[in-house]
């Protein structure tokens, strides 16, 4: 039977938790296939992303917009 000592168990759990959090962070910025950030294609583009500011038709940041980034399908 395979038995871990308490310290080894803690180390294993810590490493697994770190790996899981790093995986979640790396997937957070992933775009769906076929989509790109506009500024990656046109680095000189000047964008005014109003949904991410108070300066739009609702007067507040629109729910769901977490960053002032423009995404476009290819």
Task: Report how far apart the termini are.
Answer: 54 Å
**Helix/strand class:** mainly alpha
Order of helices and strands: HEHE
Give me the side-by-side strand order of the main sheet: 1-2
Summed up, the helix count is 2
Count of individual domains: 2
Mean pLDDT: 78
Approximately how much beta-strand content do the residues carry?
A: 5-15%
Q: Which ranges are low-confidence, i.e. pLDDT below 50, for 5 or more consecutive residues? A: none
Shape field: elongated
Radius of gyration: 21 Å
Q: What's the count of strands?
A: 2
Give helix % range.
25-40%
The largest pleated sheet is described as: 2 strands, antiparallel
Topology readout:
Layout: H1 6-28, E1 35-37, H2 38-41, E2 71-73
Describe this structure in words.
With 74 residues, this protein is mostly helical. It has two domains: 30 residues; 43 residues, no CATH class. It is built from two helices and two strands. Strands 1-2 form a two-stranded antiparallel ribbon. The N and C termini lie far apart (54 Å). The model has no long low-confidence stretch (mean pLDDT 78).
């Amino acid at each position: 039977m395979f038995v871990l000592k308490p310290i080894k168990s803690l180390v294993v759990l810590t490493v697994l938790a770190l790996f899981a959090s790093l995986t979640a962070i790396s997937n957070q910025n992933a775009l769906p296939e076929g989509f790109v950030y506009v500024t990656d294609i046109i680095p000189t583009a000047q964008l005014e992303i109003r949904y991410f500011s108070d300066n739009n038709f609702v007067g507040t940041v629109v729910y769901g917009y977490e960053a002032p980034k423009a995404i476009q399908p290819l």
